[in-house]
Amino acid sequence: MGRGKIEIKRIENSSNRQVTYSKRRNGIIKKAKEITVLCDAKVSLIIIASSGKMVEYCSGPPETLKKILDKYHSQSGKRLWDAKHENLSNEVDRVKKDNDSMQIELRHLKGEDITSLNHIDLMTLEEALENGLASIRDRKSKYVEAVIENDRALEEERKRLTYQLHKVMKIEENLRDMNYNNTTHGQQIPFALRDQPNQPNLHDIINSTSSSSSQYRHLCSLRLVGFAEICCDFRVFGG
Fold first, then answer.
1. What span, in angstroms and rounded, lies between the C-alpha atoms of 54 and 65?
2. How far is residue 200's CA from residue 223's CA, in Å, rounded to a whole number?
């Protein structure tokens, strides 16, 4: 008694479904191989399981699959991808070729793989290297000159500020000496003329005692001239 006809429908039990898939997948791949050998047919087979895992079979090397698809396009009039994807594929191929060419050129610039170059190619490579070296040297020279000029400007600025500092210190030293001399002679210096960071109180100096008015006026003149010079110098520097 023969085996009964199996009803073709989805197998609900997942274990039975997986077993059936494995058996039938192997069977259909076996049939594809047999028809390839027996009938010299070109066969391309792609199976994607419910889990997403793909199994493929092609009767020839990988490029045969493209030939089979091209023949399918020409005979059926259907396209598996549009012109946009074809242009993108062509662009990718072009970029790959450009990248390969650049890699070869880079190796040549490093002196690698140059045995296959002829005399003209070697002369062109030598000229490119000389031009690049000249550009590098010129840029290096300009950079060194800029650094030297910057150092020179910094040194001049340091000297100028040092000179200004010495001037301020000299003026303050003179003021302290005059304060000391007047104090030792019994003269009380007004509060505005004592060592302070701000400008002197000229009004108090002018209205000081008559016995030391000439000394105070002389002191005021010294401080005014000194601070005027400092302000002028800083105004020029701030520009």
1. 16
2. 8
Candidates 89, 81, 44, 46; CA nearest to 64 is 44
**For every one of its 239 residues, what pLDDT tens digit does the chain have, with 9 covering 90 and above?**
456 677 788 888 888 989 999 999 999 999 999 999 999 888 989 999 988 899 989 887 776 887 888 888 888 877 766 666 767 778 888 899 899 888 888 888 888 888 888 888 888 888 888 988 899 999 999 999 999 999 999 999 999 999 999 988 888 888 887 777 766 655 444 444 444 444 444 445 444 444 444 554 555 555 555 555 555 544 444 44
DSSP single-letter state for residue 45 = E
* CA 57 vs CA 42, 65, 190: distances in Å: 11, 9, 110
Residues 6+ apart with CB under 8 A from 186: none
SS3 163: helix
Rounded CA-CA distance 8/27 in Å is 17
Q: Is 48 helix (H, G, I), strand (E, B) or coil?
A: strand
For residue 68, what are the contacts with CB-CB under 8 A and spacing of at least 6? 42, 44, 58
Distance CA 113, CA 214 (A): 93
